[in-house]
Specification:
By secondary structure, this protein is α+β, with helices and mostly antiparallel strands. It folds into 4 domains: about 140 residues, Double Stranded RNA Binding Domain; about 80 residues, 2-Layer Sandwich (Double Stranded RNA Binding Domain), CATH 3.30.160.60; about 50 residues, Classic Zinc Finger (Double Stranded RNA Binding Domain, 2-Layer Sandwich); about 50 residues, Classic Zinc Finger (Double Stranded RNA Binding Domain, 2-Layer Sandwich). Helix content is about 35%, strand content about 15%. The N terminus is likely disordered.
Length: about 350
């Protein structure tokens, strides 16, 4: 009896946590609907597993269980059938096609599970937070967030990760590898999600909007930081004076007040600054640059605060008023000097 043609079964062993490449447009790449499991790429698939076509579904799953680790088997996404051209007629009769993306599956049950990606059905909910997932393997990986399990650790710095792919991306920090580059400016990135965020600088796309003021942002992280302005949240506090900040970078700059550190120095006069932004403003003294101009009279200023103060001349606005006599001033420093009249404090000599 002549042997039936063999079919190669290819399976995914790793789920990539990236926000790019999430569409199922070909058999080589199938994206996941869930944002945490947004990309599965064939380039990182394990070697194909040869199975005879007359194997039963139970035997197939048993063989797969012996061939891959327990963790990998939990993350198996789909089984793709690949055969040579002469076997095309045989495949047509003995495989199940996805009507959305055209991927073939050996068993109908595998196709049914795959269809959850397209229908957005999420039959596997997390018992801790209620979040739903389209596949059981994705739920198991997600549950590590709640259990704190991080089975993958970096050999260079010891940092732990709950997903193997996240570790792979992290290791590029140590190796310096940046395989994804921007077609506009050539800048390299360690992941496609970082590249996608960067490209919004060129496209000016701002998909994340603040529900309070409507301001747009190109990164979700930027929006979250901005929202602290409205909520008043300041999660970072100074250990010396207790002052709170909404961003860690702002705390770092503030700490230099206490340490006296001034890592940024002017190349023209040598003056030091604790913040690079202050140095940039200072350098305009030497360059003569005045990027802020008054739309009323055209007068230019090196700092935005100078322009803002100047505009009070045109508007007549005096936002700072004395609590003792009610007199108003255009500048806070003018109000401070005025208040010495009431406290009998003498003015310093000019």
């Amino acid at each position: 009896m002549e042997d039936k043609p063999s079919l190669l079964l290819s399976f995914h062993t790793e789920i990539k946590q990236e926000s790019l490449d999430s569409d199922c447009n070909s058999g080589a790449q199938c994206g996941l609907v869930d944002s945490e499991m947004a990309s599965v790429k064939m380039e990182d698939c394990s070697p194909t597993l040869g199975l005879n076509v007359n194997i039963s579904e139970d035997e197939a799953m048993s063989n797969i269980g012996e061939s891959i680790s327990k963790d990998a088997s939990a993350d198996v996404d789909a089984f793709l059938i690949s055969a040579e051209q002469p076997q095309e007629d045989y495949k047509e009769k003995n495989s199940h096609h996805c009507s959305h993306c055209g991927i073939r599956f050996l068993f109908k049950s595998m196709l049914r599970r795959h269809m959850n990606i397209h229908t957005e059905e999420k039959p596997y909910p997390c018992s801790d937070c209620g979040k739903g997932f389209c596949q059981l393997g994705h739920l198991k990986v997600h549950q590590r967030i709640h259990t704190g399990e991080k089975p993958y650790s970096c050999s260079d710095c010891g940092k732990g990760f709950c997903r193997l792919y996240t570790l792979k991306v992290h290791q590029r920090i140590h190796t310096g590898e940046k395989p994804y580059s921007c077609s506009d400016c050539g800048k390299g990135f360690i992941s496609t999600s970082r590249l996608a965020e960067h490209q919004r600088v060129h496209t000016r796309e701002k998909p994340y909007f603040c529900s309070d003021c409507g301001r747009g942002f190109c990164q979700l992280g930027q929006l979250k930081v901005h929202q602290r302005i409205h909520t008043g949240e300041k999660p970072f506090s100074c250990s010396d004076c207790g002052k709170g900040f909404c961003q860690f970078d702002h705390l770092k700059v503030h700490m230099r007040i206490h340490t006296g550190e001034k890592p940024y120095s002017c190349s023209d006069c040598g003056k030091g600054f604790s913040d690079s932004r202050n140095l940039k403003v200072h350098q305009r003294v030497h360059t003569g640059e005045k990027p802020y101009s008054c739309f009323n009279c055209g007068k230019c200023f090196s700092q935005f605060s100078g322009l803002k103060f100047h505009q009070h001349v045109h508007t007549g606005e005096k936002p700072y008023s004395c609590s003792d006599c009610g007199k108003s001033f255009v500048k806070l420093s003018y109000l401070t000097k005025h208040q010495r009249v009431h406290t009998s404090e003498t003015f310093p000599p000019f």
